[in-house]
Each structure stands twice: as C-alpha cells, then as structure tokens.
Design a protein that fits this description.
The chain is α/β, with parallel strands linked by helices. The chain has three domains: 39-124, 2-Layer Sandwich (Alpha-Beta Plaits), CATH 3.30.70.330; 128-161 and 173-458, Rossmann fold (3-Layer(aba) Sandwich); 478-558, Immunoglobulin-like (Sandwich), CATH 2.60.40.3080. The protein is built from ten helices and 22 strands. The strands form five sheets. The chain has a seven-stranded parallel sheet with strand order 7-8-6-10-12-13-14, with helices on both faces. Strands 17, 18, 19, 20, 21 and 22 form a six-stranded antiparallel sheet that branches. Strands 2-3-1-4 form a four-stranded antiparallel sheet, covered by helices on one side. α5 (241-250) packs parallel to α8 (404-421). The chain is globular, with a radius of gyration of 25 Å.
C-alpha cells in the first residue's frame, strides 16, 4: 500500500486500488520475470572495457561510443544518460539511459545490443517495497510488539504464547555494538526521530554542508547517507516504509519512549532507493549496495523486490565477497514466483508469519495477499501487525504495518547482534546459523513439514539460539591460542584446559567494557575450574598471563 494510512482520503483510496490491481497482476504467477515487474522506461548498458578510455565520465569515452550513443539516443529520444555508481574501485563502464514513457524498451535493448561496443543491455526494472502500511488503532505501543515477546494475548489477531523471536533472553546477552553498521535500502528514514538519536551512521570522511566531495567518492556532502532517487544527500523518508523497517532493526530500547528495536546500539545507514510511491529503479538498488559495502556496512536490509539481472547479481555477489550479509524479503503475493534479491544465492530470504506461527495468508491489508514461498526461502519471522515508527511524527507510536518487509528487519537485527558478539562471522556462516537454530514445525501441518519446506524454510528464527551458537559453534571445547574453554556457553561452572602446564599463571575474565569480573592467580597445572555462578549473564573475554606473556582468548558466553 502507499503512504501512511492516517485517514482514508480520495487520493489514498485511489492509490490502494492501483496497488491492489498491481498485486493481482503480479501475483498471477504465469508471467515471465520481466512481466512481473512494473513496466520500466530506463535501461542499463555496459560498455566493453576495451572501448573505454581511462575516464570517469561519458565525455571521455572513445569517440565511436559517444557517436553510437548519440545516434541511438536521437532515434529513441533518450531523455537522460548517466554513469551508474558501482563502487569506488569499480569500472565506470555502466550507464543508465532514460526514455520517454511508453517507449518500446524491448526494441531499444535489441538495438543497443547490436552495437559492437556494448557488452550487455537490460531493463532497469522497477522494484518496490514489500510492506503493506497500516492504520492507527487506539492501542499503545511496546506491549504490542508480539514479534519480540508474544504472550498470546495480541489484540488484532489470534496469538500463541511463545511464537516470537526470543528477544528478552537475547538482550541479556547483548544489545548490540555501535561498530556494526546496518544499511537500510528503502524509502529513507526519519533521521531526526528520537528513537534514532545517536544511531544514524555518519560519513566522517565528509565535511557536512561544505558542498565539496571531501572523500572523492562521487557523492557531495553525503554525511548521513544518500538519496539515490533524487540524487542528493538527504535520505529522508517521504513514504514511511523505510522508517518503519529501520525502527524494527534499531529503535533504541530501554529509553522510556515507544518501541524497542532488535538491536539497540548498531549504526543505521539509511540509503533512499524508493520514492514516495514506494517504488524505485533497480539501478538505485544496485548503486546503493555498492555504496553500503564501500562505506562499511556489515548488514544490508532489503525489504524490496523485483526482477533479476546480471548487474544486480554482480552487486549482490560483490557484497557477499566483501563479507557483507544481505537479508531480503520474499514479497507478499502468495505465490511461488521468485523475486530478487531474495532469490539470489547467498541471500537470506525471509518469509512472514502471524502471531499464531502460521505463514501469513493474508496480510491484514489485502484479502488476496500472502507471504511468498518457494525453493529459495531461508527462514520466517514476524511480519503481520507489526507496530513501528512514523515518518511524519516523532510522537506517533500507534501505527502498525504488515508484510515480508516487516519480517526481514527482524532477521537483519538479529544478524547485527550476531556480529556484535562475533564480528568474524561470514555471510555463509550467519545464514547457516540462522537456519540451523530456527524453530521448526510451528505452522500449518500441511505447510510446515519437518525440516526445510518451501513455506517456512528452516523455520522461525530464534535470536537467543543464534547468538549462543554464534559464540560456541558446533564443537566444544572452543580452542583459543593457548587454552580451551569448556563448556561455552557456560552456566554455573567452566573449565580452562591449557595446552601446556601453567606454573605461574593468572587468569582474568573481563566484561565488554574491560572491567574485571573474575581473577585467579593460583594456576598450577593444565586445568582450572571456575565457578561462574555469580558472574552475570553476558559476553566476556578471558585473559591468561603467564611468565610475562599475555594471551587473550575469544568470547565467552555465560548464561543463567
């Protein structure tokens, strides 16, 4: 749906009708990938490297290419031609070319492909956000976040106690790390919202407001991200979808305001790729992926979907190869048809469940909607009746949304918590942990069959299990350079096993702030028993000092 549904005016009703028929058309499932996407008036072309000069702009292209572009542009009345940003170290051989509405894009692409210097040409598909925005009930806020803590009494739908992602136990382990950056590729964010105070990512290589590209990344004054729709440095939200999604990931918890996000400390990088109608060119999605990776994001949330292309796949692979995890939504058309980036290999594809654990079918905003399914689904997460932040108000905590768009940031938030306690995890390892620890068998018996199935994937994510698994892995004990720890996680007692006997050793356990919570200076032998029953639940570091040398172990998790 389009816009935040505060009141049902004429424009809103018309937009809803348009969206309904679009969903109906897309959800038929018999059309090609191209046909399942909103008709585009823009293409992406790649020029063969051998035809390029060492240049960053079109004016320095080889003359033959410039002439070819000019001739085809005149023939098809091209409105605009721009270089496509694909990372600071990427070849500038990619262009988007905009044509008048109603142009025959298939014919245009055919003609561009005939040029000897063109490596490929393909539609710049238009994708869209996968969230149906909600209305304003009379209810109040945090207790309505059933996805985080479901007590079975949710007001708007039948709920089952315990059908949630197990956050309260998770927060006892960690509430996140400010060094972890989560990129939200969406309609932007309400950057001044109190729930985001101190949480918005900043590009410290850029001097804000001086109208200079200080870091020479191609973006002037991108101090708080970038708007790839309007091509400016203000990624503010003019729809609501992005603010809602970002709030699910990272609303600051325990601050006495409205909601608790999954991660209370990560930095949020808002990159605007959807316009006020909740749609956007995939070239914007692609450029934003490169931007997020190049500027330090460890997690990319993409509650958006559309068709596939070679250049889109290349962008996703670029992120994965750079150790950046992509979490994407399955979409909301109650169909097995694939949407991208969720269907690309290596991406964590997320479906939606209701408060009763069933695959969402339908979402509250449309009787024919439903969480998509298929061979590429990884896991499911809460996605219907999800309360969230407003892009138009700092005090409205009464709006709820529904869609796989809302399920996806639950998973992205958990991923950022996993990285907070083990930043060395790879996207492949993260995906495997989430799938291994997911809760199976919660949905309709005919859909949620044992093990993986196409409706729920591996099951409902369990944040607590994912976090503990991230620390311990499958094998126990966990081996550090000079000693092992067993068990890890530990509850009341643990044992250090030294590779060689220690005669003058000292052991310290430090919390995440470096404060000492345990010490033992009487090590004599190859083992040490530690009573950790009085050490609070949390993540710790073990330090061994032996004969003037210091050995720092990995992360120890203590749970009570």
């Amino acid at each position: 749906m389009k816009g935040e549904n505060k009141k049902y005016n004429t424009d809103k009703i018309l937009a809803m009708k348009k969206c309904f028929f679009l969903f109906l058309f897309i959800g038929l499932g018999t059309w090609s990938v191209a046909q399942r996407n909103i008709i585009t008036d823009q293409i992406i072309v790649k020029i063969k490297d051998c035809y390029l000069q060492n240049s960053r702009d079109k004016s320095n292209l080889a003359p033959s290419i410039t002439q070819s572009f000019t001739l085809l542009g005149e023939r098809f009345k091209a409105l605009d031609t721009k270089n496509l940003y694909l990372g600071k170290n990427h070849s500038m051989a990619y262009f988007t070319i905009l044509f008048p509405p109603g142009s025959d894009i298939d014919e245009i692409i055919t003609e561009y492909k005939k040029l000897e210097e063109i490596e490929y040409a393909e539609p710049d598909y238009i994708g869209y956000g996968a969230g149906g925005d909600g209305f304003i009930p009379d209810d109040k806020f945090y207790v309505k976040q059933w996805g985080l803590n479901n007590n079975g009494t949710f007001q708007h739908a039948q709920g089952i106690a315990g059908i949630d992602i197990n956050m309260e136990e998770s927060w006892a382990i960690t509430t996140g790390d400010s060094n972890i950056i989560v990129a939200i590729l969406d309609s932007g964010g309400k950057l001044d919202h109190p729930e985001f105070a101190g949480r918005i990512w900043q590009n410290h290589k850029e001097i804000s407001g001086n109208n200079v590209d200080d870091d020479e990344n191609g973006f002037t004054d991108d101090f708080q991200g970038w708007d790839f729709v309007n091509k400016d440095n203000n990624p503010s939200d003019d729809h609501g979808h992005g603010t809602n999604v970002g709030g699910i990931v990272g609303s600051t918890g325990n601050n006495g305001r409205g909601f608790a996000g999954v991660d209370w400390n990560c930095k949020l990088m808002f990159l605007k790729v959807l316009n006020s109608n909740n749609t956007g060119y995939q070239s914007s999605f692609i450029a934003a992926i490169y931007y997020a990776v190049d500027h330090g994001a460890r997690v990319i949330n993409m509650s958006i979907g559309g068709g596939q292309s070679d250049i889109y796949r290349d962008a996703v692979n670029y992120a994965l190869q750079k150790n950046v995890t992509i979490v994407a939504c399955m979409m909301n058309h109650n169909t097995e048809a694939p949407y991208y980036p969720a269907a690309f290999p290596g991406v964590i594809a997320v479906g939606s469940i209701d408060p009763n654990g069933m695959r969402t079918q339908p979402f509250f905003w449309n009787s024919s909607s439903g969480s998509n399914f298929g061979s590429h689904i990884s896991v499911v997460a809460p996605g219907n009746y999800i309360y969230g932040l407003s892009h138009s108000s700092n005090s409205n905590y009464d709006t709820y949304w529904g869609g796989t768009s809302q399920a996806t940031p639950h998973v992205a938030g958990v991923v950022s918590l996993m990285l907070a306690i083990n930043p060395n995890l790879t996207p492949k390892e993260i995906k495997n942990i989430l799938e291994t620890t997911a809760r199976d068998g919660i949905g309709r018996p005919e859909e949620d069959t044992p093990g993986w199935d196409k409706y729920h994937g591996w099951g409902l994510i369990d944040s607590y299990k994912a976090l503990t698994y991230s620390v311990s892995s499958r094998k126990n004990p966990v081996h550090f350079p000079d000693f092992s720890v067993f068990p890890n996680p530990a509850r009341s007692a643990l044992q250090l096993i030294f590779q060689t006997p220690v005669t003058e050793g000292e052991v310290y356990i430090l919390d995440l702030l470096g404060r000492q919570v345990y010490s033992n200076q009487k090590i004599n032998g190859d083992k040490l028993e530690i009573d950790c029953s009085e050490i609070p639940t949390g993540i710790y570091t073990i330090v061994l000092q032996n004969k003037g040398s210091t050995h720092t172990g990995g992360k120890l998790l203590i749970i009570h």
